[in-house]
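It would be a great kindness if you could assist me with a short task in structural biology. The matter concerns a single protein, recorded as an amino acid sequence and a row of backbone structure tokens. The record follows directly beneath this note:
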Amino acid sequence: MNSRERILGRVRRALADVPADGGSYEEAVPRDYLREHGKRTVEETVDLLAENLADYRAIVHRTDAADLPLLITRLLAAHGSAEVLVPPELPASWMAAADQVRVHDRAELTPQRMDRVGSVVTGCAVAIAETGTLVLDGSPDQGRRRISLIPDHHICVVRVPSQVVASVPQALERLDPTRPLTWISGPSATSDIELDRVEGVHGPRTLEVILLDD
């Protein structure tokens, strides 16, 4: 028996209890797991998101639409960024007060060129409170996956409460699995055998999350 036959055999055994009545796999397999752990108000869910983001060493800010442009400008200046990478349809008002040079995400941008850009500003698709996770799906206000992985400083704007859910199952219901999903839980980090933490290895060293009251 070769590897292919072993794998197909496992698939057949896994599907052995699925009735052959034409019903879909989703209908045949029970989905009775918890959709969230405990009941929370909207405010409590947002607070949990902020707490878990901070636990992953993300820097969390809260603001409204009127103060958002000044906050983004202040964060870019504090990081010392002369240039900022922006996705194609980032709301213009978000960057209205920034005087940094805008580098627009284009196909011809090389990784080396993007590596010289200090910061990137994006929106997000959904934020998960229980895990402190941001999910980007490549929408026009988020850009391609690479722009959130190469610059050293990522500012991600989350609309609150419309983009915040409690749990992973609730997030999956909102996401299109055919899109390029990037799941972010804090700044990029790894550790060696001595458990010494090193940040910025596989993505931004600094993640700042703005919870935007919408």
Observations:
- The CA atoms of residues 65 and 192 lie 41 Å apart.
- The chain has a mean pLDDT of 90.
